[in-house]
């Protein structure tokens, strides 16, 4: 395999990992692992918004490659499969066509159905409402609100609006729907419903990845992810606060 083809495979694998929510050290390790599988001497530096690779060409000159990352989601299935893919190349380096076919099959994974995602988005708040010692009615209200929030968030995501706005709107929707639930059923606890409902929006993966990056010495990436987590939590909190400040006046 030619050097530029090796780099293309490595960049594509790294991009899939990074957009799937993988830690920085994992992306760097995978990119280097793929390059070493084809005896390509490479250095890799990864940030949450980009991948930078420098290799030595056949004439001994350094050549740099950059891949900009603009959108990050959570898809741990793809992360696991890319991990397995990179390790399999160490034992059995395949041709460029085979490698790209394998990568494209992983990238093309559809994952779980939309209906199942909606169901889980409701079950999670339901479980947390019960965990917080809520009543069955409060858990059911959280279930419905969780589904609606996930639907709204997905629809906003498809429009391409920046992430913090979608979290702000989702937080506001959680507050408004919780207030409506209390208006219809005054015996329920407003704050227990809200807390259970917004659980699905909290940046747990970003915080976990930030801590792991810090432990591996990637301080810049760790601070980036922590800042991102703070902004997401703030966007959700501000949305809920605005909804409550208006809604509580007419309960």
From TrEMBL:
InterPro entries: ThrE-like_N, ThrE_Dicarb/AminoAcid_Exp. Keywords: Cell membrane, Membrane, Transmembrane, Transmembrane helix. The keyword Zinc does not apply. It is found in: Cell membrane. Residues 9-246 form the Threonine/serine exporter-like N-terminal domain. It is a multi-pass membrane protein. Belongs to the ThrE exporter (TC 2.A.79) family. This is Threonine/serine exporter.
């Amino acid at each position: 395999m030619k050097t530029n083809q090796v780099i293309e495979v490595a960049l594509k694998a790294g991009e899939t990992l990074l957009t799937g929510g993988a830690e920085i050290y994992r992306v760097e390790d995978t990119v280097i692992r793929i390059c070493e599988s084809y005896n390509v001497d490479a250095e890799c530096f990864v940030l949450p918004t980009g991948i930078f690779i420098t290799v030595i060409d056949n004439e001994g000159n350094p050549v740099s490659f950059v891949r900009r990352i603009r959108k990050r989601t959570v898809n741990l299935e793809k992360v696991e499969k890319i991990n397995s893919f990179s390790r399999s190349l160490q034992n059995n380096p395949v041709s460029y066509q085979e490698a790209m076919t394998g990568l494209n099959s992983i990238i093309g994974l559809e994952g779980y159905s939309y209906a199942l995602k909606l169901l889980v988005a409701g079950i999670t708040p339901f479980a947390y409402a019960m965990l917080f010692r809520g009543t069955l009615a409060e858990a059911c209200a959280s279930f419905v609100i969780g589904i609606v929030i996930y639907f709204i968030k997905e629809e906003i995501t498809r429009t391409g609006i920046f992430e913090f706005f979608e979290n702000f709107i989702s937080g506001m929707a959680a507050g408004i729907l919780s207030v409506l639930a209390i208006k219809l059923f005054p015996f329920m606890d407003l704050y227990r419903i809200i807390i259970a409902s917004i659980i699905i929006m909290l940046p747990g993966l970003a915080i976990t990845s930030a801590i792991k990056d810090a432990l591996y010495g990637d301080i810049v990436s760790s601070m980036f992810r922590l800042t991102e987590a703070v902004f997401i939590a703030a966007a959700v909190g501000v949305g809920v606060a605005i909804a409550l400040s208006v809604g509580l006046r007419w309960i």
